[in-house]
Amino acid sequence: MLKLIKCEFWKLKRKPLVFISLLLSVFMPLAYAFFLADANTDVDAVNGLMSALFQLSAYLLLMPILVILASNLLFGELDYDTLKNLAVIPVSQTKLALSKMLVLLLFAIGFMAVGGLVNLVVLLLQGWKPVGFWTLFAVGLEEGMIMWVGALPCILLVVLLNKNYIVSVVITFFYTVVNYILSMNDAFLTQPFGLNIGTLLPGPLAFRWIFQFYDQSQISPELADLLERISPYFLSRGQVFGVIIVEAVVFLALIAIVYRRREI
């Protein structure tokens, strides 16, 4: 399995899209950096830049990128007519599919890490102290895992549609936008932990996990009002990772089953 992961990783490294995607991870925070002059304190600067990474790069870019990369990985052997050779060796198609998904998980974590480290450089160049930065950096890596799990239903759709890239990508962008909108809606942020949209979809789930880690020592009245409304519905690490582990197991199993049953 480790050899398969290593092979898939090297295949991914040869794709220019990977490096373009990593550059996109810093696009939103860098755009926000132009407005850092409006920050009043070091805390404001850190919270603002990391918020741009969490709520823009991760929400709007990471999931679609993961689905596009998954399409490349999942159908690479078919495109180059090497899947039959792998079946003769034999290489388990289940292990092959799972190794591709694990490589995408590493990419998602790396995407958030690159964006976070660029944010740190921007903060230091602007003369701000990185107050609370490393806490938010660690949370960002965990958000990468949440977004990876959130992308799995769309990756399953890619496998089911069998190389119909356009339809898959359109649906993924729609799914991404819906998640972003729901993560900004109090109705879904104030749902109790359980079988509901506010818990099961990655947008509201990530927001209810991440928001509690921002430094709240100096906040505006508007932010204080938002915290008063949603803080009772914040989720613990155990709750969040309990949800994403269950979702990951379910969707990885479905992806492996569908991938294994395709015609070679």
Quick structural gist:
With 264 residues, the chain is mostly helical.
Question: How is this structure best described in words?
Answer:
There is one protein chain. The chain has 264 residues and is an all-alpha fold. It has 14 helices and no strands. The protein is globular, with a radius of gyration of 19 Å. 34% of the residues are buried. Mean pLDDT is 78; it is low at 83-88.
List the helices and strands and how they pair.
Blueprint: H1 2-13, H2 16-24, H3 27-33, H4 42-74, H5 76-79, H6 83-88, H7 93-125, H8 133-161, H9 165-183, H10 186-189, H11 197-200, H12 202-210, H13 221-230, H14 237-260
Helix pairs in contact: 1-7, 2-4, 3-4, 3-7, 4-7, 4-8, 4-9, 7-8, 7-14, 8-9, 8-12, 8-14, 9-12
Overall number of strands: 0
What does the overall shape look like?
A: globular
Strand content: under 5%
Mean pLDDT equals 78
End-to-end C-alpha gap? 21 Å
Gyration radius, in Å: 19 Å
- Biggest sheet: strands, sense, closure? none
- Count of alpha/pi helices: 14
Unreliable stretches covering 5 or more consecutive residues: 83-88
State the helicity in percent bands. over 70%
Q: State the order of secondary-structure elements, H for helix, E for strand.
A: HHHHHHHHHHHHHH
Class based on secondary structure composition and strand pairing: mainly alpha
